[in-house]
Write a structure and sequence with these properties.
Elements: E1 5-11, E2 44-48, E3 63-65, E4 85-89, E5 93-97, E6 103-107, E7 113-116, E8 147-154, E9 160-163, H1 170-177, E10 195-202, E11 205-211, H2 226-229, E12 238-244, H3 253-267, H4 269-272, E13 276-281, H5 288-300, E14 304-307, H6 316-327, H7 343-352, E15 357-361, E16 364-368, H8 370-377, H9 384-396, H10 399-405, E17 413-416, E18 419-422
Length: 425
């Protein structure tokens, strides 16, 4: 089973919490705070594995979560950084964030790609000691790691893509010019998955060719198999358009040429403008008039035309040399650039981490904010300096302003998770 698309959830590790600790040693009366920092959460790292040919494994495992960093300890001991979670994918995998549609990485080279960054560790209470606050009984929680729902799309890396209607001889052509052994039969859609083959011209001269399953009219709109595999042509430096010049299935070769190019154009204008060579296959079954008619039409379009018969190998060598010469002047295989967040998206992301909701029921003001739970975990509400720190968080995050805007009065109760306190101006 060939799978070239998969949707998964990835979550980098959260940072470890800073520690609240005080130095304890015989004959040392006031050792002071010595809480260490939390460790960094693990990153989600994607790497290429050439032993993997498609994305089928991601149909069965859809959730990838890295470890959290270790919490800090006493004696100024920092927590251990969590190991990265390595995800292996086939070469040519493009990772897209589903929410925004932006490209996070293109795994076309051997360079690993960090898709989600682990959160930084929180600072221990040793950092919060001042001349006026000598025994801070609070520390900072670790920062949350990045999390995304992503779409993995495999876009085969091939120099040349064979396109054309079903049963025009693409599979036969790739089988005679390379070591690829696709299934060949005299019926439509024999090829159900893309087939890669390495074509060797001579010593030191070779290229990768991909047989893309047959397109039909309407493929770009989801008809037939073609739309499932058009993405695999996107990287190709050169398209070889294979046409049945004999019209053995009762179709007009020129109309076939127009129809396939229309589908490429509907899928992507960039793809429609890609360099193209036309291979007039089954010429051994065609009349000279049929070949000449197609040749004249194709050359009027400014395209190279080759008369071949894949079944008898007539003209296939000349075609491959023509392909090599064309490739030698074309740019390298296309890579998709990762798209960074815009400033507006960065601002939205920052704001969303401080999102909160305030509701009033029976005179009690309920504050809902997931990020506050970590703050509460690392704060000691029985300690004045720790409580002061918590109040400062409420003020700077805008929660106090929101409570006052909603008409809170002195003495009213505020509830945040299980922690309740009376509001004082």
């Amino acid at each position: 089973m060939f799978v070239d698309q998969a949707k998964i959830y990835i979550k980098a590790g959260d940072g470890g919490d800073g520690a609240v600790s005080f130095h304890r040693e015989k004959y040392v009366a006031a050792g002071g705070p010595d809480g260490g920092d939390g460790g960094k959460g693990g990153d989600i790292v994607f790497v290429v594995d050439d032993n993997i040919s498609n994305l089928i494994d991601f149909r069965y495992k859809r959730k990838y979560v890295a470890e959290k960093g270790q919490n800090g300890g006493g004696k100024n001991c920092s927590g251990r950084n969590a190991p990265d979670l390595v995800v292996k994918v086939p070469r040519g995998t493009v990772v897209k964030e589903i929410k925004s549609g932006r490209i996070l990485a293109d795994l076309s080279t051997d360079e690993p790609a960090v898709i989600a960054h682990g959160g930084k560790g929180g600072r221990g209470n040793a950092h919060f000691a001042t001349s006026t606050r000598q025994i801070p009984k609070f520390a900072k929680p670790g920062f949350s790691g990045d999390e995304y729902e992503v779409m993995l799309e495999l876009k085969l890396i091939a120099d040349v893509g064979l396109v054309g209607f079903p049963n025009v001889g693409k599979s036969t052509l790739i089988s005679v010019v390379s070591a690829a052994k696709p299934k060949i039969a005299n019926y439509h859609f024999t090829t159900l998955t893309p087939v890669l083959g390495v074509v060797k011209i001579e010593e030191g001269k070779s290229f990768v060719m991909a047989d893309i399953p047959g397109l039909i009219e309407g493929a770009s709109e989801g008809v037939g198999l073609g739309h499932e595999f058009l993405r695999h042509v996107e990287r190709c430096r050169l398209i070889v358009h294979v046409i049945d010049v004999s019209g053995s299935e009762g179709r007009d070769p020129i109309e076939d040429f127009k129809a396939i190019n229309h589908e490429l154009e509907n899928f992507s204008m960039e793809l429609a403008e890609a360099p193209q060579i036309v291979a007039a296959n089954k010429s051994d079954m065609a009349t000279p008039e049929q070949v000449e008619r197609l040749r004249n039409y194709v050359e009027d379009q400014g395209l190279l035309f080759y008369e071949i018969s894949a079944a008898t190998t007539k003209g296939t060598k000349e075609l491959m040399y023509g392909v090599w010469e064309r490739l030698s002047v074309l740019p390298p295989v296309k890579q998709f650039e990762a798209q960074p967040l815009t400033q507006e998206e960065l601002d939205d992301k920052l704001i969303s981490k401080k999102d909160f909701r305030v509701t009033v029921e029976d005179g009690v003001y309920f504050v809902e904010a997931d990020w506050l739970l970590d703050i509460l975990r690392t704060a000691n509400m029985d300690d004045y300096s720790s409580l002061q720190y918590f109040q400062n968080v409420l003020r700077t995050s805008g929660i106090i302003d929101k409570l006052e805007e909603m008409g809170i009065e002195e003495g009213d109760t505020v509830s945040i998770f299980d922690f309740e306190f009376e509001y004082l101006r």
